[in-house]
Each structure stands twice: as C-alpha cells, then as structure tokens.
Amino acid sequence: MMDIGANKPALPKAYAAWTKDANLRFKSTSGGIFSELAFFVVSEGGHVCGAKYASNHRIEHCIVHNASGIEELRQSKYAQSDMADNYARIRELLRNNETVAFCGTPCQVSGLKKYLGEDSVNLISIDFICRGVNSPKAYQSWLKEIEEQEKSKAVNIWFKYKDRGWKASPKRTRILFEDGHSKVLGQDQNAFMEGYLGSNLYIRKSCGACRFKGLPRESDITLADFWGADPQFDTDQGTSLVLVHTEKGQRLWESIAGRIETHEQELFDIFEKNPMFDSSVNISPRSDRFLESLNHYRFSDMVKKYSKISIGEKIKRKLIFCIRKTRSQSHLNTTNSRTDCQNKTVRKHGKGKNLAGKLLNRPPLLYRRRKDCTGCSACYAVCPMQAISLRAEKDGFLYPRIASEKCVCCQRCVAVCPMKTQKN
Q1: Domain containing 406: what range?
Q2: Residue 45: exposed, middle, or buried by beta-carbon count in 10 A (0-12, 13-18, 19+)?
Q3: Is 255 a member of any domain?
Q4: One domain for residues 313 and 257
Q5: Are 361 and 403 in contact (CB under 8 A)?
Q6: One domain, residues 108 and 41
Q7: Considering its fold, how many domains does the chain have in total?
Q8: Which of 73, 99, 262, 304 has its CA 20 to 30 A from that of 48?
C-alpha cells in the first residue's frame, strides 16, 4: 500500500509540466503526465481505472494492473464512457487495502465518491478540465461514415494528433484502419471536431450548466492542456496544466518528480486561457435536431447544415457565456432523501406525513429533465436490487432507468446522485 495521506490544502498548487520521455509526450494528449502518474501507481502494486476504446466503437472504463495496460487509457476520448461495474470493483479493491487511481470527468469522480460514501486513503482521484461529454451516437455516426469512405473498419482513433505540433492538434485526428492504412483528418476534413469545438452540436445537456466547475474540486489532482502557458514552458510538444488539491495528490505528484519537468505557477494565472475550468459550454439550440437527423442523413452533411451560426446567435452565445462566468452556480440541495420531483409535489400539495410516506414508497424519479443527469452511473452501481439499468436514449447518451417491479424504494440511488448534492 502506498503512503499517500489524505488532507486537503486551502487552495491547489498549480504547475506547468511534461514528461521527459519525448516519445511518450508525443503520444499523449498534452504533456504525458497522466501516464507518468499511472506508471508509478502500477509500479507500486496499485491499479488504475480510466477510459479505453472498446469493441463496436464504444468507450468504456476499465481497470488495469500493469504498465502495458496504461497505453489503452492514454489520450482523450471525446464521447461518453460506459462505467459498467467499475465502481463496485474499485470498492472491492479498496476494501482489500489496494491502491486505486481513478481518472474521469469531474462528475464521474463525484459519482464514485458518493457511491463509496467516504474518501478512502487508498483512492487517488484524477479529473480534468472538461469542455463537455459528446454523444456516442454522434461519435459512432461519424466513424461509420469514415469507414464507408475508406472501405475498412477503424481500429484506432488518435484525437489531437501532434504531427504538426500541439497547438494544431485539437482539430487533427489520426485514424488507423483494419487493412493497415491510416488517414489524418485536418481542420477542413475533421467534421467531428468541428461539430464539437466549433458548434457544440452533440454535448450532453447537463454539461451546459455543469455543477462541477471551478474550486473546490473533489479530485486529488486535475489535469488539462496548459493553454496560454508562458512561452518558456511551451515548445509546442504538449504542456500539461496540473492542479494538486490534496496532500494525497501532492505525495503522488512528488513521487514522479524524477521523470518530469515541472514549474510551479501562480494559480490565478491559469484562468484566462482555460475558460472551461470554471465556465460551462453553450450547447447549440440545434443539438436535438442534429442528433435526430443522424437517423437519416450523413454525419458530415448534418454538421455543415447545423453549424451555420448567425451573427445574432454568436452575440447571444457570448452574452450567455459572460453571464455564466459572473454568477454563482446554483445546486440542488438534498437535506433529505427525497427526489427533486418529490419535494416539489410535497410543497404543492402539503407536507403531511401520509403524502410524504406515499411518495417515498414509490420508485424515485432520478431526473426530470435530461440536463439533470450527468450519466455518472452512481445510481446504477449502488442499487442493491439491480433495479437500475443504463440505456441509450434518442440522443445517444446513457441514462438510468428503474424497473419498478424490482425497486424496493430504498432511495439509495437518490442519496448518491452528485446532481442532488450541493458542492462543498
């Protein structure tokens, strides 16, 4: 077991950093820091949980136990990941006094911690500055079109390909095909990244009002591209922004000091060029129509159609973005175990014990609107009756469904939902 401590400092320490391994740095999305952290954890006998590409162009979380497995977890995957049973597997490893490093979106980190019920000293949580999670439906539709054009199945997707440098990488994607040939999609050919970075066409609804931005964070370490880094720390090969939030995170950070270049930064200097740290993305009002259109038309054609933005809409988006940056985030408050919908019904019809009791003896409504669910899967993992399944809705994202005939109304699913808990 690693001696990694547990306490939180008042404010995180900020660093510009990159691995000294030039090949690893090139293969990484930014500076290769996730891989170095993961290598250290497995070298000490620990386990690492992160997202990998799976069969049929799905993305799923998995747990690896050795250095060779880390390659599957490396690099950004720009669509929703299926958590499957990994929360339960992590809990069992922690109960056996094993060290686990978990890497996921801020809402996935929150969901895991709500599921576990406590922050184990053997759990190292790593999140990243998240712009928003994309629809698997859009991702798979894009790949299907590419495969038809290339007449071969895609077997490896390398987003943010650095063949022309780190700064050009966000809109460069390298795809390797089953027949052995590869193709690099540049800015003008890369319909998927255009629809994501340029038009926000297929981002999950909850990401438009993210409750997991800014500080404090629930993770031990936050990773990101260090856009706007001082030129002396930016050689266009990839520089990681690293925020260390806890003593546990700091101990792990210091453990890889010999393998990385690192330079401490002023915390508040990072915000200007990294707006997604504390602000939510403006999701396109055309998003639903775009995703529905994929049932009938080619992905690239629909990106062209729905990416056209008028000057008025651009101004409106900018205003919304500025307003969100200046106002505080509102959060659901669950001082009891009722769902938001149940609370509203009780307020409307009275707070009598009979009504409240009847509501609590019904299967809870986990969310009323799609934007009220992040898809973190904590509710699915915690259900003792296996009454909750995760199903893809018409937008392609996974949402929880409750089988009423199996539900015993224990309300555990509500208690672990990070969307129903105020940010500490």
Answers
A1: 340-420
A2: exposed
A3: yes
A4: no
A5: no
A6: yes
A7: 3
A8: 262
Q: Is residue 311 in a domain?
A: yes
Residues 194 and 295 in one domain: yes
Q: Within this chain, do residues 242 and 190 fall inside the same structural domain, yes or no?
A: no
Per-residue confidence of the chain (424 residues) as pLDDT tens digits? 555 555 555 799 999 999 999 999 999 999 999 999 999 999 999 999 999 999 999 999 999 999 999 999 999 999 999 999 999 999 999 999 999 999 999 999 999 999 999 889 999 999 999 999 999 999 999 999 999 999 999 999 999 999 999 999 999 999 999 999 999 999 899 999 999 999 999 999 999 999 999 999 999 999 999 999 999 999 999 999 999 999 999 999 999 999 999 999 999 889 889 999 999 999 999 999 999 999 999 999 999 999 976 666 666 656 655 665 555 444 333 333 334 444 443 344 344 444 444 456 789 999 999 999 999 999 999 999 999 999 999 999 999 999 999 999 999 999 999 998 754 4
Cβ atoms 391, 371 nearer than 8 A: no
The answer to whether 286 and 198 are in contact (CB under 8 A) is no
Strand 398-402 vs strand 388-392: parallel, antiparallel, or unpaired?
Answer: antiparallel
121 and 147 in a single domain? The answer is no
Tokens of residue 250, six digits: 């700091």
Alpha helices in 256-352 (DSSP H): 287-293, 299-306, 311-326, 340-349
> pTM of the full predicted structure?
0.88
Listed in sequence order, the DSSP H helices in 57-197 are: 67-73, 86-95, 106-116, 136-150, 191-193
Taking a C-beta distance cutoff of 8 angstroms, is the pair 50, 77 a contact?
A: no
Whether 65 is in a domain gets the answer: yes
| 269 plus 297 within the same structural domain | no
Give yes or no: residues 18 and 32 share one domain: yes
Give the strand pairing for 47-53 and 260-265.
unpaired
Q: Are residues 147 and 263 in the same domain?
A: no
Task: Look at residue 7 and tell me if it is in a domain.
Answer: no
* Tokens 């898809």, located at residue: 375
d(CA 131, CA 128): 9
Buried b (16+ CB within 10 A) or exposed e, 81-114: bbbbebbebbbebbeeebbbbbbbbbbbbbbbbb
